[in-house]
Amino acid sequence: MINFIAGGIAKDYRGQIKFVNDFDMSLVKRFYIIKNADTELVRGWRAHQIEQRWFYVLSGSFSVDIVQIDNWEKPSNNLPIENITISDDDMQILHVPIGFGTAFRALEANSELLVYADYGIENASNDDHTYPLDYFVNRQV
User: Fold this and answer.
1) Which of 2, 59, 79, 125 has the fewest C-beta atoms lying within 10 Å of its C-beta?
2) CA angle 47, 48, 50 (to 5 degrees)
3) CA–centroid distance for 124 within its chain
């Protein structure tokens, strides 16, 4: 189930600290940062059958489309697509468990998305299910 892990911010005269203290990082094996070239580019569809991901916006905001895959050999193209907007102001982590596909678009220039994965890079080629951007057509508005 897709869920959010709440964070917060502490401010004083020295500045601020953003945190997500309830994020258990014991499963995390690696991380990477996504920065799209512009706000028109959509990065996706990429789905994972055995890996899960956690997403934290470092700066800016992103539109995230999420679809639960029903068949790994040939998923239905009319599966419901959930759209979520995530922002650096949210101070939360979006958790996308195994079995889902995602597509991301930056909503602001220079937006950056920190991604945590629970498998090492050596596993990436074994769990990389990609679909054309126009494959899934049932976006929920």
Assistant:
1) 125
2) 165
3) 16
> Phi then psi for 135, rounded to 5 degrees?
-65, -50
* d(C-alpha 35, C-alpha 105), whole Å: 10
More confident residue, 93 or 123: 93
Q: How far apart are CA 110 and CA 60, in angstroms?
A: 7
CATH of domain 3-139: 2.60.120.10
The three-point CA angle 44-18-86 to 5° equals 30
Structure tokens, 111: 């937006």
Return the SS3 of 36. coil
Which residue(s) pair with 48 in the sheet? 100
- SS3 letters across 10-32: EEECCEEEEECCCCCHHHCCEEE
pLDDT (0 to 100) of residue 140? 61
The structural domains of the chain, with segments of one domain joined by +, span 3-139
